[in-house]
Amino acid sequence: MTIRININADMAEGFGDYDIGNDTALLEIVKTANIACGMHGGDPGIMREVAQRAAEKGMSIGAHPGFDDLWGFGRRQIDMKVDDLEYLVAYQIGAMQAMASYANLEVSHVKAHGALNNMACVRADYADAIARAVKAVDASLIHLVMPGTEMERATQDIGLSLAREAFVDRTYEDDGTLTPRKIEGSVIRDADVAAERVVKMVTEQAIIARSGKKLDISFDSLCVHGDEAGAVEVARRSRRALEVADVEIVPLPQMLGSVRINPE
Amino acid sequence: MTIRININADMAEGFGDYDIGNDTALLEIVKTANIACGMHGGDPGIMREVAQRAAEKGMSIGAHPGFDDLWGFGRRQIDMKVDDLEYLVAYQIGAMQAMASYANLEVSHVKAHGALNNMACVRADYADAIARAVKAVDASLIHLVMPGTEMERATQDIGLSLAREAFVDRTYEDDGTLTPRKIEGSVIRDADVAAERVVKMVTEQAIIARSGKKLDISFDSLCVHGDEAGAVEVARRSRRALEVADVEIVPLPQMLGSVRINPE
Amino acid sequence: MTIRININADMAEGFGDYDIGNDTALLEIVKTANIACGMHGGDPGIMREVAQRAAEKGMSIGAHPGFDDLWGFGRRQIDMKVDDLEYLVAYQIGAMQAMASYANLEVSHVKAHGALNNMACVRADYADAIARAVKAVDASLIHLVMPGTEMERATQDIGLSLAREAFVDRTYEDDGTLTPRKIEGSVIRDADVAAERVVKMVTEQAIIARSGKKLDISFDSLCVHGDEAGAVEVARRSRRALEVADVEIVPLPQMLGSVRINPE
Amino acid sequence: MTIRININADMAEGFGDYDIGNDTALLEIVKTANIACGMHGGDPGIMREVAQRAAEKGMSIGAHPGFDDLWGFGRRQIDMKVDDLEYLVAYQIGAMQAMASYANLEVSHVKAHGALNNMACVRADYADAIARAVKAVDASLIHLVMPGTEMERATQDIGLSLAREAFVDRTYEDDGTLTPRKIEGSVIRDADVAAERVVKMVTEQAIIARSGKKLDISFDSLCVHGDEAGAVEVARRSRRALEVADVEIVPLPQMLGSVRINPE
User: How far from A71 is each of C61, C80, C249, D19, CA to CA, in Å?
Assistant: First the structure.
């Protein structure tokens, strides 16, 4: 049986005349775009454009809501009322759905951005607020989260479809957390090393820690980055290595409709 | 047969700690709320709240998109690329739909705000862009416009449901345009005068100019204002006078599904 | 010898068409305005206008910088790079100086707003960043802070002129901290109670805790609020009671040039 | 006697994580930076950084205020109340002065950006408002404008120091206006052609139209662009050609203190 996996990346993070990231390169690599929704990045025009290009490539798309913080690119932690947070997320999902309608493409998932995601991985109230927002806008949306976090817990508690992601260019500790960035080697910049590891994780259907330990953590999607040329190369080679290993790269919804990797 | 009319007002124009308008008073007067969508006013929380309160009152709601101009409250004319304008409008409609989902209420119409509306009444490219945005997001949306304008023309050209509005507190010229504000008496501040005129217009099913001439211009909705205490009183008495005259005040969608006033 | 004290309040916190607070009432009560600088509230027009009105009243003015957070009115804690924070504060001080130039009035002090102030009272890095910003823009500016905090420490470390404030409508614990808001009675809403306590504190030249203990904490300024009618009344009566007690109400710079209350 | 000329460019137009333009290249070419002030581009950090780098290069700097329009990069024409416009400009000048204080560098001029500049070249009310703002903040500031416009007229009327600029990469008509962009050849992209023309204009001390006619229009500064690689090369070669022709490139204030080119 063919093994399948999804690959996702954050896209459409420019704003007006400001360009950022490597959307054009990523469109050849990933099968799922997390589209910025105008708060930490993105504007209505680029949201529509990336949705259109994703549709042409047979990709799936998701809303990628962030804090209302363009200057900080959504990377500043903001302590806001939980209701405000919930409605801010819902607002962005709705805006994304509108822009996707131009491409006749359904928004199929939601993935939180940057500091919002980081905070919600550890703060139950934030995670619950995001899950409520997703459910309120469209209960059929998939919530793409990092396994082992409050986001996973909240998604399951509220009964949303859950997809888990693993990072192509980050190492893991034995407890399933990411190795802190300050530790040497925590970010994998060697494309060959990354590609080899990714193939192993996908074919063994589990996250593998930097200790070599195979963790009992499944995932549906591989997250790649486009911020720098190096990250794009890591993504490109990982994809090629998966194809060479006969892994099929599919849009996110096909992962949840199909036999799950490492099913629970 | 009972005559029906809709009454609409702009609402939810506050932002964060900033309060503006008279939403609570208007909720007792109108049957349709045009809800600001976060650009010229409004934030996700107030959008949700007014949608909820409108639902409880059996009202219909619409997206009320404006320029991205909080400082100017959407009253500054902005000359932007027509594509940017179109996507800006679509974005706001989608955001409004998301917030309305909390109230299990469909967004049933769109009405442009302030300078955006004013410009689009006379600029064909802006009017067409707004009409395209409405259609792209949801082709079943009603477009609420001022009759005799590019907005009406664009709405008909693209094949959207059209609703026309007349102003309770503004006088009209014989050609169907509003009397310019600089002319004495163009804004009706006497609630009794307004109420009497409104009843006459609704029962005679036509706009009546300040010359007394009955114009061949139909309308589906009366627009009232909540900016000042005086405007609210004009709205309140107009509504009461209509009820006394046995006119039924209905949500906007019921106007288009029913026998139209002054049908064409 | 006449006892002197300053009274300060946050002002100019509206934005465009949005009005908030009670600037007109406060202009009759205080001698020093902390003027919002366009980030958490305030726009160039209202900054200029309040500076002008303050000049006409013989008041002193200060820049009142806050987080770049209009939606949250500067009350959301934001964790940003310390350099970004420093430059954000400097930017606002400069903008305020420009608007004050219309009134031929010098900006004589800086007081941080809301969550920025709260965070900097306990975070040394934030306090130091704010102090550096003040010094970089104009080393002769007075820094108005709450005594016993990192803000006071940072101001002294960097060698800026320091002014301390006490709250007219908040009670204190024996250690000089504010009684938490959740404790009954921590916010003084009875204008007579507030006025009596204020006169006692000013004439005894020390903060008095709710236990009745006289603390060894001096202050140069009394902070009053204008958010609600009740707060304005507390401010008004406090001022009147001080005048009855022959206390002279002076602009902030006169406090530091004169014999200090409770000199150390 | 050595002929002198200034070269200026718009800089610091990035925002947060967004980079734009070619500041590093331009710092080697120009002697004067027009620094974006946080509205159409620029943030407090980049404003400070470019001021610092300009100081290290012996350059002069100016505030480069624009409309409050980050999405449109200040290129959308906005019709706002003239008072709002004036205070918006003053606000930005003050903010720039604050950021320049970090580099111990005086802001020596103001040059309006994009659509604001374009509108003010033809609208007397906008030009007067900008001139009033400059004068209110610091009457010793130089106003850098395009000759033959309402901006020049307003600057002279109000009595500010005036500097005129000519474009290195745009051709002129016989009446001194820029050749419209839609006309082939109106933008000079050939660096050799530009360099030759610039040397001729500077040594003959007059703008030369594309007809070859020598116009009776003096200028103090050459404006170069950094938006694209081609524009930077045009700027670089123009500077080199001027040096080869023994023209001295000086900061803007030295142009007005010295014998003026083509004095009137």
Answer: 29, 10, 41, 12
Q: Which of C19, C43, C71 sits opposite B15 (nearest CB)?
A: C71
Run of H or E including B120: helix B114-122
3-class DSSP state of A66: coil
Question: Smallest Cα–Cα separation from B143: which of B93, B84, B77?
Answer: B93
Res D60 pLDDT > 90: yes
Query: Which helix (H) or strand (E) is C145 found in, with range?
Result: strand C142-145
Residue to substitute from D39, D84, D87, interface C, most C β-carbons within 10 A: D87
Q: pTM of this prediction? A: 0.96
Contact C173, C230 (CB under 8 A): no
CB contacts, 8 Å: D79 with chain B: 76-78, 115
The reply to whether residue D99 touches residue C94, judged by beta carbons under 8 angstroms, is yes
Q: Token match 């199909």: residue? A: A258
What is the rounded average pLDDT of the residues C208-220? 95
**Each residue's pLDDT tens digit, C37-92:** 999 999 999 999 999 999 999 999 999 999 999 999 999 999 999 999 999 999 99
Q: Which long-range contacts (CB under 8 A, 24 or more apart) does C122-128 make?
A: C122/C149, C122/C150, C123/C150, C124/C150, C124/C153, C124/C154, C125/C82, C126/C82, C126/C85, C126/C150, C127/C151, C127/C153, C127/C154, C127/C155, C128/C82, C128/C154, C128/C157, C128/C158
**Residue type at D71?**
W
Query: Tokens representing C228?
Result: 């609600």
Is residue C242 within 8 angstroms of chain D, CB to CB?
Answer: no
Q: Is D80 on the interface with B (CB under 8 A)?
A: yes
D54 close to D105: Cβ distance less than 8 angstroms: yes
Confidence of residue C258 (pLDDT cuts 50, 70, 90): very low
CA B187 to chain centre: 17
- D171 to chain B, closest Cα gap in Å: 26
Instruction: Answer whether A111's CB lies under 8 Å from A117's CB.
Output: yes
For residue D78, the chain B residues in CB contact (below 8 A) are: 69, 72, 76-79
Q: Provide the token pair at A184.
A: 């040497």
pLDDT digits (tens, 9 = 90+) for B97-111: 999 999 999 999 999
Residue type (1 letter), A228: E
